[in-house]
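Notebook entry, structure prediction.
Reason for the run: the old model in the group folder had no record of what sequence produced it. Starting over properly, with the input documented here first.
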Amino acid sequence: MNSVVSQLRESGAGRPRAVARLSRERPLRVLTFSSLFPNAEQPTHGLFVLRRLQQLLATSEIEATVVAPVPWFPSPDPRFGRYAEFARVPRTEVIAGIDVHHPRYAVMPRLGMSLAPALMALGVRDCVTRLHRGCGFDLIDAHYFYPDGVAASWIARSLDLPLAITARGTDLNLISQYALPRAMIRRAAQSSRLNIAVSDALAERLHELGADPAVTRVIPNGVDLEVFRPIDRADARRSLGIPEGNWLLSAGQLVQHVAGRGHVQEPHGFVVGHVTPEAAVGGPIAIIEDGDAIVIDAVGKTIELGVSKETIDRRLRAWKPPPKKAERGLLAKYARLVSSASQGAVTDAALG
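New structure, fully documented this time:
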């Protein structure tokens, strides 16, 4: 993490006033800016951002304040489900010894994608300005390029502060597919003094979008070996209430269809994560019966149903599509438009 701090210090070299601030013999004063950050209502939200910040703080080379914007919602009434959680998030709190501020910003249905950075910047501007006057930040460390990184780039410019932005995944892989967000992401990346990617693939995507490779660094997410360590399987199952049987755990929160769910045979060396065509559209997986053999060739990268072609043809002729869950409305439109999960489960693939 010392190398990360060094890169953050170097990221201020392009701002005249920042050079004077960074030359002092004191910890770097960092404003961490991201809507992906835990809060009292959502303690695991953006936990990866908190974990990296904790590692940076452990070096004693930085001091940090967090601004984690929260969408505005008028009522904390539980009847409104997860939206009410936003209203219950405290305006300020201390998490792991770090001062965290939660200014509100407006979210507008339909126009939300295009206006999100501007609305976020407007919502947090007064909070960030007030905090900067009080302690004098040396730089802004933003996480997630859109809308957070774009909003942070505007705030950084107005306060004459250097900026570092970390790409996390869907911000570049998904959101940058849209023209206006892509243009704003490009400008933010080009204005940032340091662009961080959590994988080589994301770094390549940044370069494709126009970011300067000279100011791009790959810093993978780490693993806390105190938390993730081998323990007795039976004890773990009992503590989590997992019944007997063989289970595959799929992890994914920011995008609903990052991973599938299913009950599978215990893996020995590799796991089949997805089979296409899907059963719902008459793929071979729809006609598998108890006792059928599945032949997997890991070297040849093939998976086959181990029954005769005649049997497959007979079963397919007898197969009937499952009834549609929705004939009208938004869900029906989604079902007609969405592509296979193997192609990203996107709804605008035909738009180019």
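Summary: The longest strand covers residues 28-33.
The old model has been moved to the deprecated folder.
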